[in-house]
Amino acid sequence: MSYCSHVFFLYSNWPTFPQVFIKGEFIGGSDIVLNMHQTGELKEKLKDIMSKQ
Q1: CA pair distance 27, 3, nearest whole angstrom
Q2: How confident is the model at residue 49 (pLDDT cuts 50, 70, 90)?
Q3: What is the DSSP letter of 31?
Q4: Fewer CB in 10 Å around end: N or C, the chain?
């Protein structure tokens, strides 16, 4: 395990990559993010970030 992989695992307790964080909050891996996209939840999480740009 690389140093970065180890640090991410210690922070999130999630063993696989990718590990998605939004505003410092651990969201999950690709399956969870895909599900959030399909249900519209990801758009809601990103709404305030996108409006600031």
Answers
A1: 21
A2: confident
A3: H
A4: C
Q: Model-level pTM?
A: 0.65
CA 36 to CA 19: how far, in whole Å? Answer: 14
Of 49, 50, 18, the residue nearest 34 (C-alpha): 18
Query: Domains in the chain and their CATH numbers?
Result: 3-51 (3.40.30.10)
Bond into 15 cis (ω within 30): no
Q: How many residues does the chain have?
A: 53
Q: Could you report the per-residue pLDDT of 11-44, keeping only the tens digit for each?
A: 677 667 788 888 888 898 899 999 999 999 999 9
Q: Which two tokens stand for residue 35?
A: 């599900």
pLDDT of residue 17: 75
